[in-house]
Write a structure and sequence with these properties.
single chain; 69 residues; mainly alpha; 434 Repressor (Amino-terminal Domain); 2 strands
Length: 69
């Protein structure tokens, strides 16, 4: 199971989802789906853009958990 920690990274950076949406060029709806862990996939280019804006690594946003199997 993949856990999305986007809300945690946003809180650490003191950035809102709206601000991230504007800086990355992704709709609020798509970011919300990702943040809630409802996304089925994410493009590497999208992940790269989010990481650039948040100055983080992909592993800061995405986490693998064995508990959800």
């Amino acid at each position: 199971m993949i856990i999305v920690n986007l809300d945690i990274v946003l809180a650490k950076r003191k950035m809102s989802l709206t601000e991230l949406s504007q800086k990355v060029g992704i709709t609020m709806a798509n970011l919300s789906i990702l943040k809630k862990g409802k996304a089925k996939a994410i493009r590497f280019t999208t992940l790269e853009s989010i990481c650039k804006v948040l100055e983080c690594q992909p592993g800061d946003i995405l986490e693998f958990s064995l508990e959800g199997k």
